[in-house]
Design brief:
With about 160 residues, the protein is mainly α. The chain is built from seven helices and no strands. Helix 3 crosses helix 4, helix 4 runs antiparallel to helix 5 and helix 4 packs parallel to helix 6. The protein starts with about 30 loop residues before the first helix and ends in a 13-residue tail after the last helix.
């Protein structure tokens, strides 16, 4: 009867772990370009949070200026949050179909136009609609840093944030 024990002579050699640092990753971007693209994408990601939280201290003055109740102004916060929850999934799907760059430019343009409109508006209806557009534009910027990292990183190149232990 044969034994199922493997002796040292029969034991297969374990493959040597592949060191990813030995490979040179390919990228069309220079190191400086990668840094600037990363900074721009990270900068754009802050718009959603900034647009949301900077609005809270101004609720009472906005209600007084538009001659409406604080409850109605608070409704614009709710609508902002609803759109910011739905927009990334819709915009992410569109980005997969049409490309990230055109959608990134479109959402930034929507965000910018909504901010200009918010600065110039003088009615509650305009405030409500423009806050939703602002949310759609800024929320579309959230997936950008992730997609930029995926597009810029080569699967063969080590991450600049990777640390050897």
């Amino acid at each position: 009867m044969a034994s199922n024990v493997i002796t040292a002579e029969e034991k297969p050699e374990e493959p040597v772990p592949h060191n990813i640092n030995d490979e040179i990753g390919y990228s069309t971007f220079s190191k400086t370009s990668k840094r600037w693209i990363s900074v721009a994408a990270s900068f754009s990601a802050m718009f959603s949070g900034l647009s949301s939280f900077i609005y809270y201290p101004a609720v009472t003055p906005i209600a007084e200026d538009l001659h409406t109740s604080i409850e109605l102004v608070n409704l614009t916060i709710t609508s902002y949050l609803i759109v910011s929850g739905l927009a990334p999934s819709i915009i992410g799907d569109l980005a997969d179909r049409t490309g990230r760059r055109p959608l990134y430019i479109a959402t930034f343009t929507i965000y910018f136009a909504a901010n200009v409109g918010l600065a110039l508006q003088d009615s509650y209806a305009a405030l409500f609609i423009l806050r939703m557009l602002q949310s759609a534009g800024s929320s579309g910027q959230l997936p950008s840093p992730i997609s930029v990292k995926v597009l810029m990183a080569s699967s063969k190149a080590p991450s600049p944030w990777h640390m050897e232990s």
